[in-house]
Specification:
3% of the residues lie in helices and 55% in strands. The chain is mainly beta. Strands 1, 2, 4, 5, 7, 8 and 9 form a 7-stranded mixed sheet that branches. A two-stranded antiparallel sheet has the order 3-6. The longest helix is centred in the middle third of the chain and has 4 residues. The radius of gyration is 15 Å and the shape is globular.
Length: 118
Amino acid sequence: MFSVDPTSKKISLSRGDTGAFTITVSGYTFGEDDRCVFTIKGGNQIVKQVAYPMVNNSFTVTMFNADTDKFNAGSYTWDVRFVIHPYYDEAGNVIDGDQVLTPTLPLNFDLQMVVGDI
């Protein structure tokens, strides 16, 4: 099961399932090297963090089985940060930028329990 509520932006996903959704940004034109960092957090632990390139002011977040199959069912939060002219660490991860923008407060992400595994 995978869903994104269009009003609250709450993401619901069954543990171990896959899903994808696209976020389109208006009001700013992103450069080719700008990145969007999508993060899911549970308590103080980052569950998933990926920096996506912007294509026509959109990016697609993909949740894979391996992203959630080892985490407990429960409530997490997610957010998006826009990084203008990003800086990278030695491993290629975005660590900062000339400007970092967080357009919303953290939103809800519910990881649902499943009955069986495959």
